[in-house]
Amino acid sequence: MKIALLYNQKPEPSASASRYESDEFAEWDAPETIEAVANALRERGEVVKIDCAPANLPRIVSTLLAEKPDICFNIAEGIGAPSREAQIPALLDMMGLRYTASDPATLCLTLDKARTKEVLSYHRIPTPAFSVVESQSDIEAFLNHDPRFPLIVKPLCEGSSKGIFERSVVSSPEELRRQAREAIERYRQPALIERFLSGREFTVALIGNGDGIEALPIIEVCFDHLPKESRKIYSYEAKWLWDDPSNPVEVFKCPAPIPQALADEIATMCKKAHRALRCRDWSRIDVRLDERGKPHILEVNPLPGILPNPDEHSCFPLAARMAGMDFNALINRVLDEALKRYGVAL
To answer: N or C: which end of the chain has fewer CB within 10 A?
Structure first.
C-alpha cells in the first residue's frame, strides 16, 4: 500500500520566534510528530511525505499525480482562512483520492464555532449560549441586552487554544469590549461571546463511523497546577506556556474520576455530536460542566492533535494509551477506519 502523509510543519523557531509567540502556527505539527506518524504508517506500506504549506501547492499536486497513493493520511491544518482545514481535502476530492478524516463540509463547519453550536442546538445537544459580534456596534448591541457575566470571548474560527487567553474570561462590559476587539482585529474574524461555565472540563477522543463509533477513556483537564489567579480554563498559556515538557505537570486525569453515569452521559452526547456533524474516522470533543454539573459541548475537533511524546500531554494519544493502543496502533486504527469507510479490504 502507498500512503501519502499530508501535513503542515511548523517553521523553525529561530526563523520565526515572534510568530510562535503570536500563536500563528500553534496548529501545525513539529517534525517529531510528523516523523512519528510516518513511522507508524510505514508498518502498512510505503509512505510519501508531503508538506502542504500553501507555497507548495504546485508540488503537492504534481507529487500526488505522480505517486498515485492508495490513500492519504491527512493531518494538514492550513492557515489564513476559515476554509483552511478543508482546502487539502477539497483538492483530494477533485483528484479522486481517498483520505482519512472528515470531508471539506465538516471541516469548514466545525472550524466555525457558532455554526457548530447551531447544529448541536438543532440536535438538542447541550452547548453554552452564545452570540457572534463583528464590529463595535455589534458589541454595544450585545451589551445593551444586559448580559450575565462572566462570559468568555474567543475568535470564531481557531483551534489549539489560539486566541483563548486567561484574559478571555471577562467580568465587565469594558473587559468584554477589549477582548472582542482583540479577537476581531488580531485574528481578522468575528468574535464568539459565550456563557462561561464554571464546572469541570473534559475531552473525549472518538474513533470510528456510523454505529461503530468508540469513545476512548474520558480525560479530565486539571487546573490545580495553574497559578492561583487563573480562571481555570485550558487557555493558550495553560496549553503552550505553563506546561513545559522539560518539567511536566499533571495536566490530565485519565480515565476521568467521575461517576459512571456521568461518563456514560458525556460519551453518548459526544457520539451524537460526532454523527450530527458528520465527522469521519476520528474526532476529539471538548466538554465542560455548568454550575449544576450538566455537561455541555464547547467545540468539536475533527483533526485532533497527536503529539507522540507523553510528556507533551496530547489528549488523543493519552486516551488511546489508556485504551491499550500505543501511538502506532492509534495511527493505524484511524487508517483502518478510513479504509473500511471506503470499502477497501484490510
So the answer is: C
